[in-house]
Amino acid sequence: MTATARNTTARRTSTARVITRAILPLAATIAALGGSIALAGGALAGTTPTAPAAPAKPAPNCTVDAKLVPSCNILWGAAAGGFSDTPRDEALRTWEQKSGRTASVYHTYHRGDEMFPTKDEIAMAREAGKPRILFTNWKVGYGAKWADVAKGKQDARIDKLAKYIKANYTDTFFMAIHHEPENDVSTNTGSGMTAKDYAAMYRHTVQRMRANGVTNVVFVMAYMNVEKWNNSSWWKDLYPGNDVVDWVGVDSYVNSQPNGYHYGDFNNLMNRTTDKNVFPGWYNWALTTGKPIMVAEWGMYECRTKCSPAEKAKLYGTVLQQLKAMPAIKAMVYFDTASDQQGLDMRIDSTRESLTAFRKVAADPIFNVRVR
């Protein structure tokens, strides 16, 4: 999903778990091993779906801490209605009904001088019987260069939002600062848009928010997962530093078209690489930060040309089994749209088989987390 395409929608801007389930000693062993269980690449074969879908009640023993990290299991959420005029809250409720599970994370997008969380977003977060954690993306430098933000030229914008948050919303929520920056990086010295300029912009924004007394925001660094960027010499310069990053996130997609671009399973979605010696795979890299990992956007494209309706269902069928090898993933947030900027369909119900397979994923108790 490119940054340019996101600017065409009303709320959309630019393109961790350690399972410590007390009843499963094996899972505790996996958690203790941490990064040693990381996947080596992105080409493992998928497995088939298992249990039938059925909404599950939150497990009372899985809760979130001050940084929204679940004590066990994985947060489950979505950004629904992408690239459409459907209000995001309406789209999410429809998506929840289709998937069979209430989202614990509600993902929205903002830019520039927009004030958020909005009243509608707050209402969704505090809905009786269906509490949700807000996850907002903010393009603070909208209309400006990253270097200018870092120099304080957008401090009035940052200060205004900080004041708004303190006055209107005290619950803890996620915020990604200018997600997917790779597509916007310039390698030209003095452009104000280098990878190092991005890191400086991110640092300045977080530090100023904190200096303004904002204590309820959990900051997310959200990457793309495109090999040409991951292999770039400047890619590592994007990281702003562990002191200003609470979670690391990735926006990543796979294609269900056999032999198509990024055709693959969940391993491919998280850990693809053209050369492990150049880039070890995004999940493997993320482990080195020591931060909880969020799949901040994920999805599976329907076939562009005619193929078996079982193809996409087969890929959904790899998710649960392959997640077991990625214990640092603590949150998964689906991106659902009928047509992205390339006209590709990422709806969970693009076919009957797709929806059946997705509901089996959603129904798994690994996503039971009590957020309030």
UniProtKB/TrEMBL annotation:
An annotated Gene Ontology molecular function: hydrolase activity, hydrolyzing O-glycosyl compounds
Keywords: Glycosidase, Hydrolase
Cross-referenced Gene3D superfamilies: Glycosidases (3.20.20.80)
Source domain of life: Bacteria
Active site location: E180, E297
Pfam families to which the protein is assigned, alphabetical: Glyco_hydro_26
InterPro entries xref list: GH, GH26_dom
Limits of the GH26 domain: 49-364
Family per similarity comment: Belongs to the glycosyl hydrolase 26 family.
Name under which the protein is recorded: GH26 domain-containing protein
